[in-house]
C-alpha cells in the first residue's frame, strides 16, 4: 500500500511527462499483484492518465474499475471510473453516452462529497455544451469547475478549467477575455509543470493571435505547442496544430514549410482516425496548391475535403441532435421530480391543517354542531373541487396524448426533411461546388485548355451523379406526397430492363462489363406501376455496375412461381456482410452511408431505400443475398400480370 501511495503522490505533485511515464509504468508493474480497493485506486489513476494518449487501454482499466467500485459499494471511486469512461466516449464522438456517464458520475461524486471529482465531471459537461455550440452555458460549467477545484486545491483541474473557459470565449469572438484566461492558465501552470496543459494553453493563445492577424506571434506559439505535443506523443494535440501552423505559414508566404506540416498533419490524422483534423488539413493543402498554381492537385485535395467534411457535418448534426434530446429529457425528468416533491409537500401541509381542525372540533362540545355544518359544506366543496381536478386531469391526459401523437408526426416530418437535406447537402452540394470551382477557374484564366480537357471527364462523372440523385429524389418525393396514387399496368419486364441497360451502356463500356441473360428471362409480364419499377431497375443495375470490378459479368435471370415473378441481378463485386443487409432491408427508413464503388464512384445511400419502398408499394418484396468479397445477388419479387397467370 505504501508504494501505491508513493506513485500516486508522484503523479499528483508533478505533471512532467518523464515523471508521469515512469510512475505509470511502475503502477502497471504492481497492478497484477494488487487486489481489492488498492487495485481499484490504481485502475482509476491509470485510466485518467492514459485516456489522452492510449484510449483503448484507458477504456479497459476504467471498465474494470467501474465493476469493482460497484462490488465494493464505493461511490467515490465509481464516480472516477464513470468520469473517465464519459471522457473517453467524448473523445470518440459518442456524445450521448458521454452525457449519460458524466451525469451519473456527478451524482455519485456529490453523494460521496468528492468535490475534486465533481469539478472534473463539470469539465466533461462543459465540453458537451461546447459540442452543442452553446458556448455561454459551457463557460458557466467551466467557471463552476474552476471555483470548486480552486477550493479543494486541485491545480490540474483548475488549469484545465481555465483553458476551457478561454477556448469558449474564443469561439464567441471575445478575444480579450480569451487572452486573459489563457494568461492566467499559463501563469498557474508555471508551478504545475504540465506539458499537456501548457500546450493546450499555447494553442488557444496562438488562435487569439491568429484571429488578430498577428501572424508572427501565432507562428511562434503554434511551433512551441506542437513541439510539446510531439514530445508527449499526444496525437490529438499534434493533429489540431499541424493545420493551424500550415495556415499561418501560408499567410506568411512560407509555402514549403506549409506543405511539409500539412502533409505531416494528413499522415498523423489519418493514422489515428482524426477525421475532423484530416478534413481541415486537406482543405489547407488545397489552398496551398491553389496559391502555387497547381490546380489539378488543388482540385484533388478539395474533393477529399468535401467528402470528409460532408460526412463530419452529417454525423455531427445527428450526434448533436441526439445529445440535445438526451439533455432535454434529463431536464424534463428533473422538472417532473421537483413537481412531485412540491405536490407531496402540499399534501403534507393539507394533512397538518386537517389535524388542527380536528383538534379544534374536539376542544369544545358547544362548537360541534356549527363545525359539523361547516365541515359538511366544506366536504361538499372539496368533492366539487376533486371532481374538477379529475376533469382537469383527464383533459391534461388527453392533451398529452394529442401532443405525443403530434410529436410523433413532427418527428416523421423532420425525418423526411432531414433525409432530403442530407441528400441535397451531401450529394448535390459537393459535385455542384466542383463544377462551379472549375468554371470559375476557367473564366478567370487559371486553367489552360489541356487542363480543362483533363478535368472535363471528372465533371461529367459529377454531373451524372447529380442527375441520377436528383431523379431518385424527385421520384421519391412525389411518392411521399399526399394524394399520390399508383398507376398499375401490365408491361414487359424484360423489355424495361433492356431499355435501362442501354441507358447505362457507357458505364458498362467504361468498366468493360458484360451483361448475361438467362434463357428464362424473356416475355415476362408483370402488373405494377411502370414508372416506379423503372426506378427500382435502374438503381439496382447502377449498384451492380458501381460495385463490379473491371471485366466482371453481371447476370440477369427471372422465374415465375405461384403468380409471382422474381427478377435477379447478380454481380461479382465487393459484396456485403449480414449487418449491412439487415440494415438495408429493415422496416425503418434509414439513409445509410453509401460505400464508394470499385472506381471510387459516390452514392447517396438513398437508392436501395427507394427500391425497397417502391417494391413494397407494388405489393412486392426485395431481398439480398451476399457475402463480403463474393458479390451480391439482389432479387425483386412482383405480382405477375393476369395475362401471364391465365396462360
UniProtKB/TrEMBL annotation:
Family annotation (InterPro entries): BphY/WalK/GraS-like, HATPase_C_sf, HATPase_dom, His_kinase_dom, HisK_dim/P_sf, Sig_transdc_His_kin-like_C, TPR-like_helical_dom_sf, TPR_rpt
Domain of life of the source: Bacteria
PANTHER family: SENSOR HISTIDINE KINASE GLRK, TWO-COMPONENT HISTIDINE KINASE
Each TPR repeat, start to end: 119-152, 239-272
Span of domain Histidine kinase: 423-642
Protein name according to UniProt: histidine kinase
Catalytic activity: ATP + protein L-histidine = ADP + protein N-phospho-L-histidine
UniProt-listed PROSITE patterns: HIS_KIN (PS50109), TPR (PS50005)
Keyword Kinase applies: yes
Amino acid at each position: 500500500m505504501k508504494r501505491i501511495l508513493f506513485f500516486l503522490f508522484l503523479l499528483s505533485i508533478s505533471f512532467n511527462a518523464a515523471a508521469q511515464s515512469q510512475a505509470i509504468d511502475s503502477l502497471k508493474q504492481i497492478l497484477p499483484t494488487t487486489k481489492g480497493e488498492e487495485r481499484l485506486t490504481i485502475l482509476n489513476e491509470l485510466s485518467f492518465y492514459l485516456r489522452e494518449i492510449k484510449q483503448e487501454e484507458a477504456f479497459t482499466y476504467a471498465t474494470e474499475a467501474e465493476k469493482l467500485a460497484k462490488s465494493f459499494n464505493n461511490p467515490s471511486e465509481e464516480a472516477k471510473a464513470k468520469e473517465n469512461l464519459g471522457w473517453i466516449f467524448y473523445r470518440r464522438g459518442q456524445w450521448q453516452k458521454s452525457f449519460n456517464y458524466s451525469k451519473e458520475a456527478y451524482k455519485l461524486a456529490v453523494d460521496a462529497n468528492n468535490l475534486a471529482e465533481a469539478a472534473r465531471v463539470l469539465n466533461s459537461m462543459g465540453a458537451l455544451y461546447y459540442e452543442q455550440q452553446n458556448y455561454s452555458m459551457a463557460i458557466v460549467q467551466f467557471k463552476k469547475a474552476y471555483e470548486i477545484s480552486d477550493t479543494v486545491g486541485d491545480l490540474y483541474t483548475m488549469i484545465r478549467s481555465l483553458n476551457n473557459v478561454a477556448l469558449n470565449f474564443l469561439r464567441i469572438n471575445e478575444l480579450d477575455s480569451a487572452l486573459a484566461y489563457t494568461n492566467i492558465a499559463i501563469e498557474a501552470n508555471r508551478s504545475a509543470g504540465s506539458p499537456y496543459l501548457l500546450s493546450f494553453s499555447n494553442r488557444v493563445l496562438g488562435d487569439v493571435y491568429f484571429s488578430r492577424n498577428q501572424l508572427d506571434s501565432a507562428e511562434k506559439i503554434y511551433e512551441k505547442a506542437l513541439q510539446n505535443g510531439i514530445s508527449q506523443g499526444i496525437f490529438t494535440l499534434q493533429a489540431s496544430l499541424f493545420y493551424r501552423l500550415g495556415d499561418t505559414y501560408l499567410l506568411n508566404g512560407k509555402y514549403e514549410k506549409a506543405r511539409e506540416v500539412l502533409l505531416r498533419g494528413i499522415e498523423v490524422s489519418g493514422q489515428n482516425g482524426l477525421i475532423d483534423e484530416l478534413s481541415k488539413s486537406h482543405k489547407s493543402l488545397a489552398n496551398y496548391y491553389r496559391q502555387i498554381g497547381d490546380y489539378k492537385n488543388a482540385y484533388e485535395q478539395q474533393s477529399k475535403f468535401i467528402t470528409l467534411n460532408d460526412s463530419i457535418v452529417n454525423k455531427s448534426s445527428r450526434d448533436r441532435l441526439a445529445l440535445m434530446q438526451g439533455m432535454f429529457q434529463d431536464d424534463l425528468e428533473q422538472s417532473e421530480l421537483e413537481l412531485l416533491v412540491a405536490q407531496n409537500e402540499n399534501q403534507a401541509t393539507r394533512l397538518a391543517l386537517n389535524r388542527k381542525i380536528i383538534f379544534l372540533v374536539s376542544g369544545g362540545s358547544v362548537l360541534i354542531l356549527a363545525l359539523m355544518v361547516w365541515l359538511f359544506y366544506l366536504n361538499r366543496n372539496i368533492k366539487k373541487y376533486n371532481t374538477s381536478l379529475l376533469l382537469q386531469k383527464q383533459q391534461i391526459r388527453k392533451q398529452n396524448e394529442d401532443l405525443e401523437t403530434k410529436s410523433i408526426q413532427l418527428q416523421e416530418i423532420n425525418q423526411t426533411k432531414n433525409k432530403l437535406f442530407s441528400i441535397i447537402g451531401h450529394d448535390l452540394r459537393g459535385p455542384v461546388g466542383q463544377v462551379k470551382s472549375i468554371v470559375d477557374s476557367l473564366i478567370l484564366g487559371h486553367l489552360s485548355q489541356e487542363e480543362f480537357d483533363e478535368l472535363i471527364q471528372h465533371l461529367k462523372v459529377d454531373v451524372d451523379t447529380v442527375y441520377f440523385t436528383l431523379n431518385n429524389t424527385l421520384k421519391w418525393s412525389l411518392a411521399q406526397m399526399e394524394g399520390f396514387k399508383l398507376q398499375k399496368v401490365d408491361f414487359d419486364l424484360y423489355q424495361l430492363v433492356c431499355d435501362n441497360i442501354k441507358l447505362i451502356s457507357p458505364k458498362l463500356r467504361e468498366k468493360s462489363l458484360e451483361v448475361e441473360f438467362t434463357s428464362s428471362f424473356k416475355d415476362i409480364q408483370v402488373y405494377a406501376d411502370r414508372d416506379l419499377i423503372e426506378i427500382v431497375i435502374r438503381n439496382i443495375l447502377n449498384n451492380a455496375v458501381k460495385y463490379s470490378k473491371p471485366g466482371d459479368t453481371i447476370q440477369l435471370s427471372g422465374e415465375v412461381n405461384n403468380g409471382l415473378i422474381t427478377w435477379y441481378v447478380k454481380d461479382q463485386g465487393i459484396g456485403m456482410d449480414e449487418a449491412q443487409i439487415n440494415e438495408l432491408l429493415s422496416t425503418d427508413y434509414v439513409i445509410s452511408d453509401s460505400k464508394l464503388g470499385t472506381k471510387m464512384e459516390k452514392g447517396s445511400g438513398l437508392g436501395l431505400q427507394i427500391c425497397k419502398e417502391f417494391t413494397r408499394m407494388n405489393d412486392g418484396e426485395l431481398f439480398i443475398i451476399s457475402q463480403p468479397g463474393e458479390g451480391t445477388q439482389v432479387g425483386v419479387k412482383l405480382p405477375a400480370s393476369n395475362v401471364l397467370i391465365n396462360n
